[in-house]
Amino acid sequence: SVTLVLQVESLDDGPALVLQGPGIKGRSTMRARPLPHDFGHRLAANRALFPRGVDVLLATDTAIAALPRSVQLAGER
């Protein structure tokens, strides 16, 4: 596994990603910008590698959001 730290401009704006999985009670909506247009597909592909894969940290100058390789998009099979 590897940890990838990505600097983003905002964790309050951008396309909505509805997440679920270990550490998330029910479902949670996350927004970040900028992200690649296919970021959701990349998360799903990363999850398919579990327990291998990439843990992603999204960081602004004042906040951090962690997306472990176990995170799942709501509705993902």
List the helices and strands and how they pair.
Elements: E1 2-7, E2 16-21, E3 24-31, H1 39-48, E4 54-59, E5 64-67, E6 72-73
Structural description of this entry:
By secondary structure, the protein is mostly beta strands. The chain is built from one helix and six strands; from the N terminus they run βββαβββ. The strands form two sheets. It has a three-stranded mixed β-sheet, with no helix packed on it. The protein has a three-stranded antiparallel β-sheet with strand order 3-2-6, with helices on one face.
Question: Which characteristics define this entry?
Answer:
77 residues; mainly beta; 3-stranded mixed sheet; 3-stranded antiparallel sheet; 1 helix; 42% strand; globular
Quick structural summary:
It contains one helix and six strands.
**In angstroms, what is the radius of gyration?**
12 Å
Bulk shape: globular
Number of E strands: 6
Number of helices: 1
Spatial order of the strands forming the largest sheet: 1-4-5
Helix content: 10-25%
Q: Decide which structural class fits the backbone.
A: mainly beta
| Chain-averaged pLDDT | 92
SSE pattern, N- to C-terminal: EEEHEEE
Largest sheet: 3 strands, mixed
The percentage of residues in β strands lies in 35-45%
N-C termini distance = 22 Å
Low-confidence stretches: none
